[in-house]
Amino acid sequence: MKEAIKNALIQSYEFLINDKFALTGVIIYVVFMIIAVLAPYIAPYDPHEMIKVGSEYMFNKPPSQDFLLGTTNMGRDIFSQLIYGVRPALVVGFTAAFFVMVAGTLVGLFSGYYGGTTDSILMRITDVAFGIPFTPFVIILVGFLGPSIWNIVLAMAMLLWRDTARVIRSQVLTVRERSFVEAARVSGASDLRIIFVYIAPNILPLSFLYGSLAVGWAILTEAAVSFLGFGDPDVISWGYMLNDAYISQALSRGAYHWFIPPGIFIMLAVMAGFYIGRGSEEILHPRLKEY
Amino acid sequence: MNVRWKYILKRAGQMVLTMWIISTILFFIFRLMPGNPLVAYIDPTFTQEQQQILMQQFGLDQPLWMQYVIFIKNLLRGQLGQSFFYKDSVVNVIFKVLPNTIYLMLSALIIAYFTGIVGGIFLAWKRGEKVETAGIIVTLFTRAAPQFWVGMILLAVFSFEFGIFPSGGVSQAGTSYASEFHKLLSLDFYRHLFLPALTLSIYLIGLPLLLMRSNMLDVMSESYVEMAEMRGLSKLRIMFKYAARNAFLPVITAMAVGIGYAMGGNVVIETVFSWPGLGRLLVNAVSTSDYPLAQGAFILIAGVMVFMNFLADIIYSLLDPRVNIESRR
Asked: Which chain B residues touch A270 with a CB distance below 8 Å?
């Protein structure tokens, strides 16, 4: 079992080294992680602080040496908010992706291995999940459960596993027919043992890849939900910043330095997820049945 | 009965089943809300009489399973309750804004699919050239950029900076259209429609463009295209007359799925542009705790999505005789 996981990790590693797109994605995430850890040292101000110089509040300042990206209408430093915003983005992205990977992989494994009724039931559930409109569902659930980052993660995890489950299932269908699985079955291995010891390691790289795609979707969705005003009020995320800019008339004041940077950061994070998840390939060669 | 009809009937059955399960999930989400289950349907500001009618209509004094049966019955009859905020029936409120969502969606889909198909052919033509790489990178950006952010930039530039387009709504502040018909004839309406439709089409263009491109590349390796090349036909003629024609069918099918997508994607874009449509209605309903309205809007959006997926599957099976229906599921 340990050996198998190690092999899967090595395979993923080799894939990264050979794929420039994936490597770019990983580098973006590593940089983001470093920023997240060092945020207090990089950001010059507390992102919540209403900055006061002398007796004057620093409202709506344009970019300058003191405030790299200027300040908000409440006198908060935009650059510091941007830096601290990396934290919730990564937390949301990775936790959501973790749940998506685990749930999607399990559903795919059981569905593909057992076939028959189990398969029908699980795949019907997957069909239902595909029929639920994603953003509206997250909004409704978060609206009712209360605006917290964990509720957003929960709501996303409840639907995002659907893509992973379908892909893993079809992969399991082919792995199931391979001779080593047959050999294990003949030698009397139990179903669970076959699933987790013989089949799972072969599909792990694929679920890692789908997990990283989910990181991108999760960050994008958190931003949309926060923008709509259902975000965690205590957490400064990029979506929150854009919401703040939008309702504070940053658009009519032409405060591009306020609302352009968070969008670029969201885009970088999402693209990194796509790149690692071989998303570039999936996206470039869409097949109708996957939509 | 032939295989195809059986398949269509089976798919229709699945569609009904899916909608039933989604409604059931929704019923329980709304009942699991903290507080009294009555909160879901009755606002304290309703008159005594209204409260009585709703109590009866939704069986709110009955046990949960009975409430569920009544909920499903009402749903089948198209009764979705009373909106707290608008003091009107949910169905009326929804159907008042639905046309706006449809106009926005259709115009965005037309722009996205037309540009996407032409762009896809172009990129396939320029295979291996720098233009292709640049085109693909730009397309990847459209998939990764948050739609509301794209909308914000367009608003800041075209509306606030240059004042070319209005900043939101469907009509100038303080005015309204005499009827749907007048609205569609008014130039002002299209000025309001332009930016949101553009934003939504940027969001939608990725699928048709990339699908068209990869289909073109597939088709161009088929023998009849090679045949045409050997006959010395011009590249333009081969691209359009032979390849594009065949590459184009799946993209049209994908349009049905695109409609489903657009319904969900609308939520954010309608909010940015204060476009009075179904998506914005849902957002406002959730933030004002207008539960019946939120529920109704969600069911309609989900219904359109499920139906469009069904339609796409059916068209796909009709268009492509190679699809073996039995082994596909």
From this structure: 144
Contact A250, B152 (CB under 8 A): no
* Closest by CA position to B256, among listed B192, B311, B194: B311
Using DSSP, state whether A98 is helix, strand or coil.
helix
Establish if B14 touches chain A: CB-CB under 8 angstroms. yes
Q: How far is CA B40 from CA B37, B43, B90, B279, B289, in A?
A: 6, 8, 13, 20, 9
| Cβ atoms of A276 and A22 closer than 8 Å | yes
∠A197-A203-A205 over CA atoms, to 5°?
A: 115
Joined together, the tokens standing for residue A211 give 């997990």
- Asked if B35 has any chain A CB less than 8 Å from its own CB, the reply is no
Q: How far apart are CA A243 and CA A247, in angstroms?
A: 6
Give the list of residues 6+ apart from residue A223 with CB closer than 8 angstroms, or none.
A237, A238, A239, A242, A266, B146, B149
CB contact under 8 A, B155 and A251: yes
pLDDT tens sequence for chain A (291 residues): 667 667 767 766 666 666 677 788 888 999 999 998 988 888 777 887 777 777 777 777 778 777 777 777 777 888 888 989 899 999 999 999 999 999 999 999 999 898 888 888 898 888 888 888 888 899 888 888 888 889 899 988 888 888 889 888 888 888 888 888 888 888 888 888 888 888 888 888 778 888 888 888 899 999 999 999 888 888 889 999 999 888 887 777 878 888 889 999 999 998 888 777 654 455 445 443 333
Q: How far A6 CA lies from chain B's nearest CA (Å)?
A: 32
- In eight-state DSSP terms, residue A221 is H
Residue B285: which of A231, A240, A136 has the closest Cα? Answer: A136
Q: Which residues contact A103 (CB under 8 A, 6 or more apart)?
A: A157, A161, A164, A165
| CA A32 centroid distance within chain | 13
Q: What is the pLDDT of residues B254-267, one digit of tens each?
A: 787 777 777 777 88
| Residue entry with tokens 């940089």 | A31
DSSP labels, B234-288: -HHHIIIIIIIHHHHHHHHHHHHHHHHHHHHHHHHHHHHTT--SHHHHHHHHHHT
For the beta carbon of residue B13, count every other beta carbon within 10 angstroms.
10
Question: Residue A146: how many CB atoms within 10 A of its CB?
Answer: 11
| Strands A52-53 and A56-57, bridge-based pairing | antiparallel
Q: CB A263 to CB B136 under 8 A? A: no
